[in-house]
Amino acid sequence: MTEGLRTLAVAAIALAGGFAVQSFRTAAIPVSSPERLVAELRLSQIAALLLTLTAGAYLGLAAVHETRTGVGFDVALAGGFFVLAGYTLTSDPRQALTLLALGFGGHALLDVAHRPGGLPDGLAPWWFTVGSATFDLLVGALCYFPLLRRP
């Protein structure tokens, strides 16, 4: 196991674990309580930061592989995820969490599209794209989880 893989795995587990705790705590608050709205707002803000972080990885990959054909599309998509994350900061928390869950799902599809035959492959090791897609799906589900716990 390389140092990069080990470090990214620990970071992903820590970030997803902390986000899971916040998501479960939010879902446990009664829906009629004003604290629920505040908790959903905080959860959506953290999720927006995480989406920005995961999308930013493709900016770094594009910079490293600047001469590869198609990396400009990755940069444009990363910009789209930044815009989505920024938009959710001014949205109703429930709408924001729904949009962020969809955004993470879209980012997971982007990760999968970097396998051979899709978007430029070989920008990142296979473990990175698989791990990123898994992280995205997990965090996206955790974004939507408190909304499922509504009557």
Shape label? elongated
Regions with pLDDT < 50 over 5+ consecutive residues? none
Strand content: under 5%
Largest sheet: none
Q: Would you tell me the structural class of the helices and strands?
A: mainly alpha
Q: How far is the N terminus from the C terminus? A: 45 Å
Q: What is the percent of helical residues? A: over 70%
Radius of gyration: 16 Å
Q: How many β strands by DSSP? A: 0
Helix/strand order, N-terminal first: HHHHH
Total DSSP helices = 5
Q: What count of domains describes the coordinates?
A: 1
In brief:
The chain is mostly helical and 151 residues long.
Describe the structure.
With 151 residues, the chain is mainly alpha-helical. It has one domain (3-148). It contains five helices and no strands. The chain has helices spanning 3-28, 34-64, 71-88, 93-113, 126-148. It is elongated and about 55 Å long.
Itemize the secondary structure elements and their pairings:
Layout: H1 3-28, H2 34-64, H3 71-88, H4 93-113, H5 126-148
Helix pairs in contact: 1-2, 1-5, 2-3, 2-4, 2-5, 3-4, 4-5
Descriptive terms for the model:
mainly alpha, 151 residues, 5 helices
